[in-house]
Amino acid sequence: MSERKAEIIRNTRETQISLGLNLDGKGESKINCPIKFMSHMLELFARHGHFDLVCDIHGDVEVDYHHTMEDLGLVLGEAIAKAAGDKKGIRRYGNMMLPMDEALVLIALDLSGRPYLVYDVQPPAAQVKDIDAQLFHEFFQALCVKAGLNMHIKMLAGKEIHHVFEAMFKGFAKALDTAVSIDPRIDGVLSTKGCL
């Protein structure tokens, strides 16, 4: 099997992001991000998905976090799509219901090539540290578009906002790990169309 890795660089007047992703990694990460909570979330994503992830992220955070969060979603989504390649042999679907203390989040996803996000989350606070909680919707929306990913994110319980988003990123990692894992029973791609 060929290496399932991707390196993506995005440079705009608002952000400069370079990202390396290995779907068959060991859960190691090296993250440089001006939004420290997102550094933590990306480290969790790498560790719990067994992905290797290297990010160097710069953005106009003195203006707002919006550009950096959205562009990070675009770049990570593009890396997932590129690393997954032709998707031959992958399970395609993944899901996880993940608890984090009082929080419970459901993630279900399909690497179908058809981007669609259903985001049923009512954050228990307007901000996590200094990040507008709504920006996580923007991050996942951008990621789904570039990854060609259909994903449902549903918050089932949660009173502490840090726990909610930690459960979300861990659950996303576990569900994606399942979806990109190889099933030797699958000949080609898991679709009656013959392509994804």
Detailed description of the structure:
- This protein is α+β, with helices and mostly antiparallel strands and 196 residues long.
- Helices cover 34% and strands 31% of the residues.
- It has one domain: 2-Layer Sandwich (Ribosomal Protein S5, domain 2), CATH 3.30.230.
- The chain contains 4 helices and 10 strands, in the order βββαβαβββββαβα.
- β5 (93-100) and β6 (103-110) form a beta hairpin.
- The radius of gyration is 16 Å and the shape is globular.
- The relative contact order is 0.20.
- The mean pLDDT is 96.
Write out key terms for the chains shown:
196 residues, alpha+beta, Ribosomal Protein S5, domain 2, four-stranded mixed beta sheet, 10 strands, 31% strand
Number of helices: 4
Strand segment tally: 10
> Main sheet: which strands, in order across?
1-2-4-3
Instruction: Kindly estimate the percentage of residues that lie in beta strands according to DSSP.
Output: 25-35%
* Number of individual domains: 1
Overall geometry comes to globular
Order of helices and strands: EEEHEHEEEEEHEH
CATH topology annotation? Ribosomal Protein S5, domain 2
What top-tier CATH class fits best?
A: Alpha Beta
Instruction: Give the class from helix and strand content and strand pairing.
Output: alpha+beta
| Fourth-tier CATH superfamily name | Imidazole glycerol phosphate dehydratase, domain 1
Residue windows where pLDDT falls under 50 for at least 5 positions = none
Radius of gyration: 16 Å
Major pleated sheet: 4 strands, mixed
Q: Residue share in helices? A: 25-40%
The CATH architecture designation is 2-Layer Sandwich
Instruction: Report, as a whole number of angstroms, the end-to-end distance.
Output: 19 Å
